[in-house]
Amino acid sequence: MRYLIIDKRQRITEKISTASKRLIQELEKKNYSYDFAYNDELEFILKDGNLAIKAAGKDITKYSHIIFRGHSLSNEKEYHFKRYIIDYIDIYNSKNPGKKILVQNAQAIKNLPYYNKIATALFCVKNNLPYFDTYFRTDGDYLQDRDILNEYPLIMKDYSGENRIEKIEGKEKIKKNVFKIDSEHEYKNLGNIDTTHMFLQQFSSSGEDYRIFVKLGKVIGGWRRKAKGSFMTVSKGEYEMYNNPNPEMKGIAERFATLINADFIAVDFMYIDGKPYIQEISFHPGFKAYETKITEGNPTNIAEAIITAFRE
Question: Fewer Cβ in 10 A, N or C end of the chain?
């Protein structure tokens, strides 16, 4: 077996992500050969009626397994690159049935042609899955709809999920593009935010969120995170193991994963009025906090789960 991991460059450090490092560690434990490439190291070559794709200078048909990690959320091309690779490998596999290449989440990516919050919401609507009430205006002028704005508090988020970079004490740091709005006055004083890239979502007062990892349609682990000193759970949140979610949350996570046909996925939840609602999903979730911030319980080896999450 020979694996190829394709990831995005980190916006500040430009180092290999922690998640990809962990995948490499698990591959090395199993003595599996591998290569690593960034999204900006891909080549698409059409010549004499034939297509070839290279990653960091190497033909991708030389691999047995391909794992997609992150892509730039502000650059839709990087998600499209994944689809081009999947379509190309489908053609290759049809011509070489004895040497099939497995691409993680290939069917799921086909089923979610756009990787953003509205696309996720549409998938949930289509399949009757609980999703946060969401409102997006292409002109960003949310003052035009007073009925929506009167439902304070509201959360404003980036349409694609992209984070912003702020310089704090002379150092660049990644910050969530998430804002809580308690009044029209606060909305009007958001500063230089380009609201054409933002959407509004109902607010959960639960003060906690959940990440549930699903491998080949079955929940294998997860965490619960409680907010501390802020409405945002990601800001100094307290983590605890949540490998066995309640039946309702487990059922929703597994149903989403099955319907979208994901090999590996994380489904994030928050509660509203005592019911779990899908907040977002990820085909390439981070799991550093799960491995490093939880002191009690028996964590699942998420990295090992990812490198073995392929449908034949």
Answer: C
